[in-house]
Amino acid sequence: MKFLKLLSLILILRSAVSYTSAQQSLQIPGKNQADLSLIKNENYSMIWYAMKDTSKMEMAKVDTKIVKTDTRINVTTIVKMKNMPDWTDETELAFPNLAAVKHSSFNTQRDMVLDFGNQNMVTGYYLDKAQNKKTEISEKTRGKFFDSNFYPQLIRWLPLKEDYTTEISLFDYNPKSAIGIIKAYITGTKKGTYNNKTVWIISVTDDISEKKVISTYYIDVMTREVLKQEIDMAGRKMMMERI
Fold it and tell me: Which of 6, 7, 169, 180 has the greatest number of beta carbons closer than 10 A?
């Protein structure tokens, strides 16, 4: 009898460990839980607000375009601010493994181009327009990763469910901080409602912000569209709402 109880306890513990491992598995290109059938051509817009107490002030309109082919996915984001030039980011991915191919980003403060090649070497440049300083990028990498600009899209296509958590391997370049492979973390998932729609409410942070910024995504359960995003950062709050 004692042996059977011990065996039962071992099986329960093994099951718990297996479940935790599945929840915490690292998402990387070619080995991830993304449902590729959810990826499609899209055009959508969101309004970006700065929040103060219960009031909100419109900062910009953010247009996102996703173009999918048999071998590539392109994600283009254009931030349109009043009386300012557009800020444009574009990420190119290989399909179906979702590996980063190229990332370009152009705004009034800086220009940046990253070429990921075969993911063993990242090359490109970073132009600081305020200081008129151009930095050539040539960074050896070890391990697989997604482009950091892409992971907010990837979240939509993961197998979301109550209490779902996971980690996502990323490459991010910032001349003022660490260069290289870092992580994003889905720390919690729960079901809720927003604008009379059933949504997944997902809490996310990352090493880019040293885990000091928390983003909360409201994703339509049926369509996997991002309906709202809340951003909490050191007492400040911003929000993006889908038009």
Answer: 169
Question: Distance between CA 28 and CA 111 in Å, rounded?
Answer: 27
Distance CA 116, CA 124 (A): 9
User: Which residue has tokens 């042996």?
Assistant: 3
| Residues 90, 95, 97, 102, Cα dihedral to 10° | -30
Nearest CA-CA partner of 219 in 170, 141, 154, 173: 154
pLDDT tens for each residue of 33-83:
999 999 999 999 999 999 988 899 999 999 999 999 999 999 999 999 988
**Which pairs with CB-CB distance under 8 Å and at least 24 residues apart come from 179-182?**
179/139, 180/139, 180/141, 181/141, 181/142, 181/143, 181/145, 182/148, 182/206, 182/207, 182/208
d(CA 123, CA 180): 12
Amino acid at residue number 30: G
Half-sphere exposure of 186 (CA within 13 A, CB side): 31
Q: Write down the pLDDT at residue 21.
A: 39
pTM: 0.87
Is pLDDT larger for residue 9 or for residue 177? 177
Strand partners, 110: 128
For residue 145, give Cα distances in angstroms to 6, 76, 171: 41, 19, 6
106-161: pLDDT as tens digits: 999 999 999 998 668 999 999 999 999 999 999 888 889 999 999 999 999 999 99
